[in-house]
């Protein structure tokens, strides 16, 4: 086709090339525990003339007294991983072929 409104149309050919690329992802999951604000509630009324041991509690061995209990929670982590690639094409070496003084490209 000819020029339209003084704009030349580009002509050429496009070929699709491909290359396999292996991509690894190293994923490290570090779980953590963040305590929230404690909620304290009284259980029943205070007792008179009794000790915690009298009520069936094991006396604490630390001073000041504290109680340590271990709670376990299983976590399941769903994590999407997107594998992609940036492609950059740069011109390579140029090979020169025969020259013709008339149009000689296939139509």
Automatic annotation (TrEMBL):
Q: Which domain of life is it from?
A: Bacteria
This protein is called what? Uncharacterized protein
């Amino acid at each position: 086709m000819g020029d339209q409104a003084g704009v030349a149309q580009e002509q050429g050919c496009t070929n699709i090339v491909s290359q396999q690329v292996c991509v690894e992802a190293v994923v490290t999951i570090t779980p953590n525990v963040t305590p929230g604000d404690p909620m304290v509630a009284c259980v029943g009324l205070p007792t008179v003339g009794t000790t915690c041991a009298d009520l069936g509690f094991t006396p604490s061995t630390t001073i000041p007294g504290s109680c340590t209990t271990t709670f376990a929670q299983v976590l399941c982590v769903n994590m999407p991983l997107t594998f992609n690639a940036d492609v950059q094409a740069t011109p390579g070496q140029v090979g020169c072929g025969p020259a013709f003084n008339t149009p000689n490209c296939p139509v």
